[in-house]
Amino acid sequence: MRIDVISCVPALLESPFNHSILKRSQQKGIVEIVVHDLRDYSINKQRQVDDYAFGGGAGMVLRIEPIVQCIRKLQSERNYDEIIYTSPDGKTLDQSEANRLSLLGNLIILCGHYKGIDERVREHLITKEISIGDYVLSGGELAAAVLVDAVVRLIPQVLSDESSALTDSFQDGLLAPPVYTRPADFEGWQVPEILLSGHQAKIEEWQLQQAISRTQTRRPDMWEKLKH
Ligand code: ADE
Question: What does DSSP say about strands 2-7 and 106-111: parallel, antiparallel, or unpaired?
Answer without folding.
Answer: parallel
